[in-house]
Structures are given as structure tokens and as C-alpha cells.
Specification:
By secondary structure, this protein is mostly beta strands. The chain contains no helices and 25 strands.
Length: about 300
């Protein structure tokens, strides 16, 4: 469900057995539930974004929603209007330096929401155009400080889009090229503090993009190497305030990368240890103001 906390909105995926919680000077938290009765397009919320103007955006299974703290404006596909969003199933969002919102959809390509015109520009795969996006099943989006939009797809690898040139560069796995991206099914994208692009794949591990050579450094699990990444199914990537890179996996716990050595430290659930990780399937990673890592 969607919950409004004070003047901010947050998505609560799991609220687990909180017996006590300290907030400020003992201030009690009050939650207001916001759902379809309040204008939210769908109860399945896939992504939440707060833009530079303070608006909250929610990508759902049935819309791209803007919330101003009082009411929703829902953007859905209208087949009769080419300026509407290309598809209503929203997977991910990112804001660029102009304040425009980039939106990934399931099966309907990439969208750019122009804040000035309140219209959507569509980018769809065209088999006759080598410079088009590589596929329409778009999973993840990141915008870097150079204005390049990085787009992960479900089956067709990674794309780098330069809005000024209007051209998509494609990066796909090549079986006999170890410097190519680890896999074509992209499950996670992250830009770190040094503008490196990190890519998580569904079954082929973690990749780091080298901007100078346009090649990739890949990290994959090896059963005989205890310092390799714990699994190849990557679900989350995060850099903390000390510039350490954390990687979450499906069913294989949490990893911390030693960037100098290219090795990983692992944390997993231990049924005999109450202080171990509670579950080995990681959905997200974050850091609070006290530098605690939340998983």
C-alpha cells in the first residue's frame, strides 16, 4: 500500500514487527494510507520518484501518477493520442537535469515526459533502424551527469541514449568476448559517485561499464572461489557514503565489493544466528543519516 508520512510519501513494502521506534524527540509517527479511492491508478506500485520540484511520481501496473500532496494526476495510454504514454505498465523512472521524466514500460518501450508541453515522446524498437532502442521490454533506467540515459532491457541488453543526437548505442553479450556485458537480461542499474555504470543481470552476474574503452568488467559466481559474488541473479546495487558498493542477490544474500581486489564479502541468513540477515533474497538497499545500511 501507499503511505503518506507527514509531508512526504513513501512506499511500504513490508512493515515487520516494530515494537518501538524513536523519531526525533520521541515523536510518534502517523501513517495515512493512500489508495485507488484517493486517485492512485493501481495498488501495485513498482517505482517511486520525488522530482526536483517536490512532486511525487508513482509508476504502477496501470499508470504513471503524479501526486502533489493533495491529489493525483494519472497519465495512461490512449491509443487515439500519440502524445500520451506509450504503455500504462510502468517499470522504472528517472529524472534528467532538465526536469523531464524518463519512463520504462513493460512491452511499450521508453518514454520521455516533457514537463514544458506535458506530452510524452516515445522510443520504440524498429527492426529497420539500427539506431533505435534494442527492445521494448524496458526494465531499468539511469540518467548520468553527462545527460546520457542508460536503459536496461529484459532480453536485449543495455542501451545508452544521447538525447542530443537521438541515437541509441547497444551493448549486448557476445559469447566469445569476455569484455562484453555479462548478460542481456538486465535486472538492476546503478550510477556510482564516479559516474561508473553498474549493471545487474538476471542470471549472469554483475558488470561495470568502462567509459574509456566501452567494454565491461564482469563479476560472476564461481563455486570454487569463495571470494566471488555469491550468485549471478542480481536484484539491487547501492553505493554508500564511504563509496563502498553493495550488491543484493536473489536467494544468495548480500555482497560487499572490494574494488581494489575485485573480491566480495558475503552476508547470508543463518537460522542459528538471530543477528544474521533475515532473508537471502534482497529487494533493495539504502543508507540512513547515521550511516546504517538497510536491506
Amino acid at each position: 500500500s501507499l503511505i503518506k508520512l507527514g509531508s512526504k510519501c513513501v512506499l511500504v513494502a513490508v512493515l515487520a514487527a516494530l515494537s518501538s521506534f524513536s523519531w526525533g524527540q520521541g515523536q510518534q509517527l502517523h501513517f495515512t494510507h493512500i489508495g485507488t479511492a484517493n486517485g492512485l491508478s493501481d495498488l501495485d506500485v513498482n517505482v517511486v520518484l520525488q522530482d526536483k520540484r517536490g512532486f511525487m511520481w508513482f509508476g504502477t501496473n496501470d499508470g504513471h501518477d503524479r501526486y502533489d500532496g493533495y491529489k493525483f494526476r494519472v497519465y495512461r495510454n490512449d491509443p487515439k493520442d500519440s502524445t500520451t504514454i506509450s504503455g500504462s505498465y510502468v517499470q522504472d523512472m528517472a529524472e534528467d537535469h532538465k526536469g523531464n521524466i524518463w519512463i520504462s514500460t513493460e512491452g511499450s518501450g521508453l518514454n520521455e515526459f516533457d514537463r514544458k508541453t506535458n506530452r510524452f515522446h516515445h522510443y520504440r524498437h524498429d527492426s529497420k533502424n539500427i539506431n533505435s532502442i534494442s527492445g521494448d521490454l524496458v526494465t531499468k533506467i539511469v540518467v548520468d551527469d553527462y545527460g546520457i540515459v542508460w536503459i536496461g532491457t529484459l532480453h536485449n541488453g543495455l542501451n545508452a541514449f544521447d538525447p542530443k543526437r537521438g541515437i541509441f548505442l547497444h551493448y549486448t553479450h557476445k559469447q566469445n568476448d569476455p569484455s562484453s556485458i555479462a548478460g542481456n537480461e538486465i535486472s538492476a542499474l546503478f550510477k556510482d559517485s564516479e559516474e561508473n555504470i553498474w549493471i545487474g543481470t538476471v542470471n549472469n552476474g554483475l558488470s561495470k561499464f568502462d567509459r574509456k574503452t566501452h567494454t565491461f568488467v564482469n563479476y560472476t559466481h564461481a563455486d570454487k572461489n569463495k571470494e566471488s559474488i555469491s550468485a549471478n541473479r542480481i536484484t539491487a546495487i547501492f553505493e554508500d557514503s564511504d563509496h563502498k558498493l553493495w550488491v543484493g542477490t536473489q536467494e544468495a544474500g548480500l555482497n560487499l565489493l572490494n574494488k581494489g581486489k575485485g573480491t566480495f564479502k558475503h552476508w547470508m541468513h543463518d537460522s542459528h544466528n538471530a543477528n544474521s540477515l533475515s532473508n537471502n533474497s534482497i529487494q533493495n538497499i539504502a543508507e540512513d543519516d547515521n550511516h546504517n545500511i538497510w536491506v
